[in-house]
Amino acid sequence: MSYEELISAAAELLRQGGRNFALTGAGVSTESGIPDFRSPGTGLWERYDPMKTATLSALRRDPAAFYDWNLQRWEAVAGAEPNPAHTALARMEELGFLAGLITQNIDGLHLKAGSKSLFEIHGHLRTCRCMSCERHFPFSHVTDQYGAGINPPHCACGGVLRPDVVLFEDRMSPDFFRATQALSGCQVLVVAGTSLQVYPAAGLLDLARRVVIINREPVPGSERADLVIHGPAGRILSDLARVCAG
Ligand code: APR
Fold this sequence. Notes:
By secondary structure, the protein is of the alpha/beta class.
């Protein structure tokens, strides 16, 4: 099928009604200047070992090093703006073609773009919590202390503060369980910008009747998809939203 035929076929699936969802990964934020994790040559995990920098045991073992590894990158994310991929998905929700959006991203760009029914299954960077007393605070409690040379950032009770993101070895977020509930009866799942390497997120495809994969390069799981459209998520999702809108 040509590109135009693929977009029309995807729009046709979404227009058939039913509860459709989107599942996104870091690939929808690269056009906002945020590197993804596994793209050859630019992915973050080509430069850092995730087992050293993004696991619960790394945080527990050396929280100061954990923040040295991650905080500068996370603060850079805070300054990023949504790109056409984010705005197209928010538009499709507004037009009723998406009942919700499930994201693995912690950058908050779907929220900034106006998505309402949003499930941030790997958490977000808006709040943090104390690893001892479990109290929650705005994430600025971490960035302010780190900026004042206090590393690791800590709670008044003395406990170390940790971000409300899901690290490797962490339990899944409440949003993940809410997303699995919301996906019951899902008609079409539009999967965009994810390598589908990480579970249980990648397993969410099994809950959808139909799957449309949008990605710059081939990903495992494509054989399960009804449609696969390779290319930049910003352009593809914008074209898809335009054709859906009619
Ligand atoms: N348009 C379309 N696809 C893109 C674009 C783009 N502009 N940029 C990158 N991609 C694709 C890449 O080809 C890759 O297949 O997006 C995918 C991103 O995959 P990953 O980097 O593995 O990111 P993701 O799937 O979100 O990772 C899942 O792994 O490390 C953990 O917690 C982290 O949430 C993350 C999880």
